[in-house]
Amino acid sequence: MNERVEDWEPQVSIVVPMFNEGERIVGTINSLANQDYAPDKLEIIVVDDQSTDDSYRWATEAAAKHPNVRVIQNPVNMGKRRGINRAVRQAESEIIVSVDSDVVVEDDAVRKLVACFVEDDIAAVGGRVNVLNKNENWLTRMQTIKYYFGYEYLKNVERAHRRVMCLSGCLTAYRRHVLVELEPVLEDRNVMGIPIKYGEDRFLTRHIIKAGYKTVLTLDAVSHTIAPPTLKGYFSQQIRWRRSNLVDYMGGLSHVWKLPPLVSLHYYSLFALLLVYPAVVFDSLVRGSFWNMAMIHLAMLAGFGTMYHIQTLALPKEDKVHPLNFLWMGIVMPVTYVALTPLAIFTLDSGSWETRGHKANRNDKLPDDVALDDLTPDESLPDEALPGAELPSPNP
Q1: Which alpha helices (H) appear in 132-257, and where do they start and end?
Q2: 7 lies in some domain
Q3: Closest Cα to residue 213, out of 100, 92, 124?
Q4: Which residue of 7, 115, 154, 364 has the fewest C-beta atoms within 10 A of its own C-beta?
Q5: Residue at 6 is within a domain
Q6: pLDDT of residue 338
Q7: How far apart are CA 163 and CA 126, in angstroms?
């Protein structure tokens, strides 16, 4: 998307939902406080979802250094989306920017997002996500190339029609009135009567489109996230994303056909791949043709790696990785599809908040005496969270 409204500078509230992020939240807050945007038109709200570590202390210490940053703490563990909704209720800005708590945002990102609201029916604008720890090991290097193709190619059809079906919570801007309009739908999300907290970004994006609005993606607004450096962390992330994909693809069957034909075809094709790929691999094992299929698979990945190499020739060495690292997908992709897709199907009612939350159950809801409407900034913002307050050390 190339259209811009560079002279529009509305009030913006950046909301950062946080749970057990530790010291990393300081880097996130500092990157947001240093945005190339008028400070009097920018506020940053960090929402601590009852972290059990020292995240709250780190956040309040960072907030004390920036007059437009404040930290609020949920009275109970609400989950990411409810925490964001609570901050949205307190904010008065026209634009709400959601940023994950482990993300570092480039200093022109907010301005680039805001400039893309060129039409009244554009309700959300997402930014690009790069891998911050790209050279940590083979796994993060593989994910670096995977992220690159995800943004450069996989979303092109949706971008062309302004119907991007999933905007990352790492960096996305919304019109506030749309979030308020959709809040009842977001609050009531469940599978088989069990509240779920995974995949909220995808769910929100799809419902924005279902409501008749447009969603766009700009590659000019850039954020950097920490990719899981261990197989345990990677597979934990992937199973959460796989559940999200399955739930949302099924939810979209009732209305995605109303979208532009190419967008619908793209949506259904990805859903089919998710379901069919495990069966194809299993069939190849039974028929004894697995290694033939594996060689074709590796050849395709080598081709993608070559494309990556050519397209990143002009980038500095520190901004790219060796293309051969993508060959690891030849092993990782079949495993994730064959093992994780069936597992995700049988655990759709898992309700964990990212990788660190508690498992939900049918009674996982706000206590009767806690209502979002009744919560005010004063009730949840201790004196130590106020900018400029004297704070305890994060390392007592």
Answers
A1: 138-149, 156-160, 176-187, 200-210, 231-252
A2: no
A3: 124
A4: 7
A5: no
A6: 84
A7: 11
CATH code: domain of residue 105: 3.90.550.10
Nearest to 237 by CA among 331, 126, 104, 102: 102
Single pTM value for the model = 0.84
Nearest to 229 by CA among 343, 308, 169, 142: 142
Q: What is the mean pLDDT of residues 154-182?
A: 94
Residue 373 located in a structural domain:
no
Angle at 120 between CA 115 and CA 126, to 5 degrees: 45
CA distance 365 to 79: 10
Number of domains observed in the structure of the chain = 1
What is the residue range of 300's domain?
12-365
- Asked, for residue 80, whether it belongs to a domain, the answer is yes
Q: Are 167 and 254 in contact (CB under 8 A)?
A: no
Tell me how far apart the alpha carbons of residues 274 and 315 are, in angstroms, rounded to a whole number. Answer: 33
Confidence class of residue 14 from pLDDT cuts 50, 70 and 90?
A: very high
